[in-house]
């Protein structure tokens, strides 16, 4: 019998996860969902100690955001509070611990969207902003634009009183090793040497680790945010889906809030975040169904990754078509989880 492609196996197997994560309708329900990236997460390679670190940091970030909601804060404030903690952790490909571009520097992207007003802000290719998600919010609230990039974004940051940090702040030894392996793989390909299974693994993990959060507050408003260091060994100012509204991030009170993680080139082409919301808007689709359909589109083109989403009824979905996704949620009805692999939260 012909084997099923890996990405289709995980997509098929995890549709049940998406459905299982949905919660009953409740007018007063509020809560949030977060992710720390989807991709090749090898259970055998992840030590018990490292797994515990990831779970602890995801829990810390989740609780910080949930506390904001619990105290009556806005969904937008909760999203920012959650993502800042993930940006400050070297465990994830965002902020400190971001992957390195081809020149050995970190280039950071982030975006945020307010579902109440559908205003949005994003930054791309910044190199000296400690928490890019906060600058994305500043672009949304204090500029007439949606996206600023590179030096211009950092000039705007200075005008807003930001203190820029040296690029070395973001860099870690683990990311330097990943960059070196990526360069070795690139050199081997130029020499026409066939790709080995190990190189295939490295090629796929080079794209993942984005962080994100979606939230529903007590007033019934939604918000979404996403932050990333992009792709290891990226060149020419490459930008993925994370800072692109409608691709990596989207929020509208009428539908849902979405944050994506995965192979950005494909997520941009599908317009993943908006595509999920559009199915709710135009077809009346369920949240889990819409997310699964959109991820199937990504898979059909050859891409992979995952999404987190929440709607105004407090329904949650967290599907992915990779071997794992760092993820979690907490709702005011007491339901909560932190998960990494294919287990049902």
Question: What report would you give on this structure?
Answer:
The protein is of the alpha+beta class and 345 residues long. The chain has a single domain (6-339), classed as Glutamine Phosphoribosylpyrophosphate, subunit 1, domain 1 (4-Layer Sandwich). Helix content is 39%, strand content 20%. The protein is built from ten helices and twelve strands. Helix 9 (272-283) packs across helix 10. The protein is globular and about 55 Å long.
List the helices and strands and how they pair.
Elements: H1 6-20, E1 31-39, H2 48-70, H3 75-87, E2 108-114, E3 120-126, H4 132-142, E4 147-149, H5 150-159, H6 173-190, H7 197-205, E5 211-216, E6 222-228, E7 249-251, E8 256-262, H8 264-270, H9 272-283, H10 287-301, E9 305-311, E10 316-317, E11 324-331, E12 336-339
Parallel strand pairs: 3-4
Antiparallel strand pairs: 1-5, 1-11, 2-3, 2-6, 5-6, 7-8, 8-9, 9-10, 11-12
Helix pairs in contact: 1-10, 2-3, 3-4, 8-10, 9-10
CATH class bucket: Alpha Beta
Name of the CATH superfamily = (Glycosyl)asparaginase
Kindly state the percentage of residues in helix: 25-40%
Question: What is the 3D shape?
Answer: globular
> How much strand content do the residues show?
15-25%
Distance between the termini: 32 Å
Give the low-confidence spans: 1-26, 196-206
The count of strands amounts to 12
**What's the main sheet like?**
8 strands, mixed
As laid out across the biggest beta sheet, the strand order is 4-3-2-6-5-1-11-12
Q: What can be said about this structure in brief?
A:
The protein has helices at 6-20, 48-70, 75-87, 132-142, 150-159, 173-190, 197-205, 264-270, 272-283, 287-301, and strands spanning 31-39, 108-114, 120-126, 147-149, 211-216, 222-228, 249-251, 256-262, 305-311, 316-317, 324-331, 336-339.
């Amino acid at each position: 019998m012909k084997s099923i492609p890996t990405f289709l196996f995980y997509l098929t197997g995890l549709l049940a996860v998406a459905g299982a994560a949905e919660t009953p309708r409740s007018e007063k329900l509020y809560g949030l969902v977060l992710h720390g990236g989807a991709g090749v997460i090898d259970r055998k390679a992840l030590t018990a100690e490292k797994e515990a670190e990831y779970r602890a940091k995801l829990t810390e970030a989740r609780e910080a955001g949930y506390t904001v909601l619990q105290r009556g804060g806005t969904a937008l404030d909760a999203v920012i509070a959650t993502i800042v903690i993930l940006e400050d952790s070297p465990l994830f490909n965002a902020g400190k611990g971001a992957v390195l571009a081809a020149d050995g520097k970190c280039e950071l992207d982030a975006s945020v969207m307010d579902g109440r007003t559908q205003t949005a802000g994003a930054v791309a290719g910044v190199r000296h902003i400690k928490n890019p998600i906060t600058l994305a919010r500043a672009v949304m609230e204090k500029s007439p634009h949606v996206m600023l990039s590179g030096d211009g974004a950092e000039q705007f940051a200075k005008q807003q009183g930001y203190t820029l940090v040296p690029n070395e702040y973001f860099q870690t030894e683990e990311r330097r090793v990943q960059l070196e392996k990526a360069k070795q793989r690139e050199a081997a390909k130029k020499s026409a040497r066939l790709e080995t299974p190990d190189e295939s693994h490295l090629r796929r993990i080079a794209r993942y680790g984005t962080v994100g959060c979606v939230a529903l507050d007590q007033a019934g408003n939604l918000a979404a945010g996403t932050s990333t260091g992009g792709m290891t060994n990226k060149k020419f100012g490459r930008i993925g889906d994370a800072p692109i509204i409608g691709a990596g991030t989207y929020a509208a009170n009428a539908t849902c809030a979405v944050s994506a993680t995965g192979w950005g080139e494909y997520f941009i082409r599908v317009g993943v975040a908006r595509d999920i919301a559009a199915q709710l808007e135009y077809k009346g689709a369920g949240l889990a169904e819409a997310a699964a359909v959109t991820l199937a589109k990504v898979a059909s083109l050859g891409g992979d990754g995952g999404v987190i989403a929440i709607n105004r009824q407090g329904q949650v979905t967290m599907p992915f078509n990779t071997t794992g996704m760092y993820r979690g949620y907490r709702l005011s009805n007491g339901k909560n989880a932190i998960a990494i692999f294919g287990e049902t939260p």
